[in-house]
Amino acid sequence: MRELYASGRIVDILLAFLALEVVAWVLWRRRQGLPIRVTAPIRALLPGILLLLALREALTGANWVWVALWLTVSLPAHLADFWRRAP
Length: 87
Hints:
mainly alpha
């Protein structure tokens, strides 16, 4: 387990699960006969994906600039998702 975290591979596994979630969502929508807009789940998951990328950089000892970059990019993604969901 230590190597899984130290190498950042845990983040890759989590990203794979997020990709599977999008595929499952598309398949469920198709089965229900609902319109498929793949951008909807991606927009919802994007802030988390960006935070996971920042986590991977931090776990692997990357330069702080990369961690800051992913964190900075995640803010507009969070705000866009928040505004999209606001009533």
